[in-house]
From TrEMBL:
Reported function: Catalyzes the conversion of epoxyqueuosine (oQ) to queuosine (Q), which is a hypermodified base found in the wobble positions of tRNA(Asp), tRNA(Asn), tRNA(His) and tRNA(Tyr).
PANTHER family linked: EPOXYQUEUOSINE REDUCTASE (PTHR30002:SF4)
Organism: Flagellimonas marinaquae
Enzyme class: oxidoreductase
Cited HAMAP family: QueG (MF_00916)
Record-stated family: Belongs to the QueG family.
EC number, UniProt record: 1.17.99.6
Molecular function in Gene Ontology: 4 iron, 4 sulfur cluster binding; cobalamin binding; epoxyqueuosine reductase activity; metal ion binding
Protein keywords: 4Fe-4S, Cobalamin, Cobalt, Cytoplasm, Iron, Iron-sulfur, Metal-binding, Oxidoreductase, Queuosine biosynthesis, tRNA processing
Protein name in the entry: Epoxyqueuosine reductase
Cofactors required: [4Fe-4S] cluster; cob(II)alamin
Any one cellular-component term (Gene Ontology): cytoplasm
Residues involved in cob(II)alamin binding: 59, 130, 154, 212, 237-238
Length: 306
């Protein structure tokens, strides 16, 4: 079986598994990303995310993650919800409405790798879902699945940006896709709308100012300088995506596991303020929100009420 046929087979199976799209690039050192990442780290834009300083070489070179790797298979999975939260509520990022995406995507990636091994032969590879030193968005852009927008998220003309990015790194030669061009143009909607001014210049986000960082990654108290700038977000933030013109093309996902607990959608601010451990565990069973624990969510709500 030649590289063209293997590639077609993999992309067809990815679609069958429910992925939005699949792009493939050659597993090689990310030369353009190296100075960018180094500068971002030197300026401490990663805040307390110390893990971003680790495995610098692995982040840029997939052959250090999977021995003798030849290809990076990038995949997108839609999470845009059909229904949104009650407007009189503290807000949760849409990606966290349903089951934790790590579980959902990991299963799909394992199925895809198993399919490759069954159909093509002895292929070694690893699945990555935002949980290892891999620059997901850089690989997806290199694989032609979109371009990195001014808000530093991956953007695709047909579907916007409400999707997860994951990859399989394999020791298999495949046909490689070409990157697409940037279509942000002169638009600055995301930069203008960011409540904490975290997008300090086009394509550069100061992670330590981002509401997602402040409500999830930051373990200490939220600095008082962000008072009245959090726009009622208690877990994550979607502002830069909500205002992006390309997201008018977003269509609801068809993954049942991403459907939210109905209480999450109907809760008012009062309900969130009075949430108990029992209700938290029920509403967020197997959810990404478990990362903050109830104590983290309570800290965020206290800060929003000040």
């Amino acid at each position: 079986m030649n590289a063209t046929k293997r590639t077609h087979l993999i992309k067809t199976e990815a679609k069958r598994l429910g992925f939005l799209s699949c792009g493939i690039s050659k597993a090689e050192f990310l030369e353009d990303e190296a100075p960018r990442l180094e500068k971002w780290l030197k300026q401490n834009m990663h805040g307390e995310m110390q893990y971003m300083e680790n495995h610098f070489d692995k982040r840029l070179d997939p052959t250090k993650l999977v021995e003798d790797s030849k290809s990076v298979i990038s995949l997108l999975l839609n999470y845009f919800p059909e229904e949104k939260q009650n407007p009189d509520s503290f807000k949760i990022s849409k990606y966290a409405y349903g089951m934790d995406y790590h579980f959902v995507i990991k299963d799909k990636l394992k199925s895809l790798l198993h399919f490759i091994q069954e159909e093509i032969g002895e292929v070694h590879g690893r699945a990555f879902v935002d949980s290892a030193p891999v620059l997901d968005k850089a690989w997806a852009a290199k694989s032609g699945l979109g371009w990195i927008g001014k808000h530093s998220n991956l953007l695709t003309q047909q579907v916007g940006s409400f999707y997860f990015v994951a990859e399989l790194i394999v020791d298999l030669e495949l046909e490689y896709d070409a990157p697409v061009t940037d279509h942000c143009g002169t638009c600055t909607a995301c930069i203008d709308a960011c409540p904490t001014k975290a997008i300090i210049e086009p394509y550069v986000v100061d992670g330590s100012k981002c509401i997602s960082y402040l409500t999830i990654e930051l373990k200490n108290e939220i600095p008082s300088g962000f008072q009245d700038k959090m726009d009622d977000w208690m877990f994550g933030c979607d502002v830069c995506q909500d205002v992006c013109p390309w997201n008018r093309f977003s269509k609801p996902h068809n993954e049942p596991l991403f459907n939210p607990n109905p209480e999450l959608l109907s809760f008012t601010k009062k309900d969130w303020e009075e949430i108990t451990g029992e209700i938290f565990n029920k509403v967020f069973k197997k959810s990404a929100v478990k990362r903050t624990k109830l104590s983290g969510l309570e800290r965020n709500i206290r800060f929003l009420k000040k």
